[in-house]
Amino acid sequence: MAVRRRASPSVASDGAAQAPVDVRPVPGDDLPTLAPPKLAVILSLSVAFFIPFFYVVFYLWGFLVALRSIPVAARYLLKRNLFGYDINKKGTPQGTLKVPESLGIVIGIVYLVVTILFQQFNFTADSNWLVEYNAALASVCFMILLGFVDDVLDVPWRIKLLLPSFAALPLLMAYAGHTTIIIPKPIIPYVGLKILDLGKLGDIQTIHGMLAVFCTNSINIHAGLNGLEVGQTVVISAAYQQAHAFSIYLVQPLLATSLALFSYNWYPSSVFVGDTYTYFAGMALAVVGILGHFSETLLLFFLPQVLNFLYSCPQLFKIIPCPRHRLPRFDPKSGLLTGTKDGTLVNLFLRLFGRCSEKSLCIRLLVFQALSCVFCFWLRHVLSGWYK
Question: Which region ranges are annotated with the description Disordered (predicted)?
Fold first, then answer.
């Protein structure tokens, strides 16, 4: 979590206010050098994720380009005063370092280039998937732009909630899938229908639009730790790979480029991803779920994000007081985080399992994310044939 270099208080990605910082220009000679990427962690993850899909080595160059581009972009962002200070390291030498922000813009651009070039090798001019594929990329591109605008201009929260609605328009207009919902077998006797038709431009578009809004904002508020935003995206993307080919075409480059960012964002973080990345990742995962026709599976993959949102609702809707900062308390002497009473999954884990370091807490949350994906597959297997 960062305190941005702004002249007035602003709001962090999880709703926390950010303290004002000196806004004098940063001399070029004083720009900090990024720490080397944590490639050992990334390579071990890559082996587990990519062995079943070794035939898509096309995406390896996307990983390498993103890995080399991040330090270059970080230097330009520092020159433009787009940096922050790590709140969870306040009171330590690491808490005084200038950490470049908004590196999600690099990952988003590389992702778009890879997925656009991939069409040349896989799709023909009359491909049935081509229209929806490009509509998905248009929505993702739109969300990257709006996310970067948010990072630069610090858009108010009431506006942030509307941004994914506009970005999802190309996807919703190009949607050519079914507009029906299969009623679960146990409740068919009560509703008297086996299939419910929602209409082409009716409720199905509204549902998909709301799903896109939820996915983008849920990753944005389940944040505050080094590596958490990118880590949850990597875990969900790895689970998505078990779906059909269309999902793989869109998720593999997301996984490859996110791993490159993860190598710099993992504890201790050398860069911050910014709202650009959280919006981009949420929209990319949403379009795969919508166009792949497995919205229920998507929500099960997002179980930690759903729980975090529900737990945050009393504060988000001002039912109970919502402080400017909803982060854990950091003890610079012990280096441990202590949970507060604020309604976030990060604080809940600290209250349930006790104080721990930022790295250990992030690992616990990512393990919970992975277990949620495993639970999704188990549940679908158990309910197969009985539920639908």
Answer: 1-23
Closest of 103, 98, 104 to residue 33, by C-alpha? 98
Burial class of residue 272 (count of CB atoms within 10 Å of its CB; 0-12, 13-18, 19+):
buried
Q: Are 271 and 73 in contact (CB under 8 A)?
A: no
Of 11, 262, 32, 281, residue with least CA distance to 154:
11
Helix, coil or strand: residue 266? coil
Q: Which residues of the chain have pLDDT under 70?
A: 1-30, 46-58, 176-180, 197-204, 241-244, 324, 387-388
CA distance 118 to 122: 6
pLDDT tens-place string over residues 66-123: 999 999 999 999 999 999 999 999 999 999 999 999 999 999 999 999 999 888 877 7
Compute CA 332 distance to the chain's CA centroid, rounded to the nearest angstrom: 29
Tokens of 117: 């070039």
Strand partners, 2: 86
> Which H, E and C letters describe 175-216, residue by residue?
CCCCCEEECCHHHHHHHCCCEEECHHHHHHHHHHHHHHHHHH
Residue 262: phi, psi to the nearest 5? -60, -35
Q: What's the distance, Cα to Cα, between the start and end of the chain in Å?
A: 42
The per-residue pLDDT for range 350-359, each reduced to its tens digit, is 999 999 999 9
CA 176, CA 42: separation in Å to the nearest integer? 37
pLDDT for the residue numbered 193: 75
- Which segments of the chain does DSSP mark as H helices, in order? 39-50, 60-79, 104-122, 130-153, 157-160, 163-167, 169-174, 188-191, 204-221, 228-240, 245-265, 274-291, 295-301, 303-316, 345-353, 358-383
Distance CA 142, CA 149 (A): 11
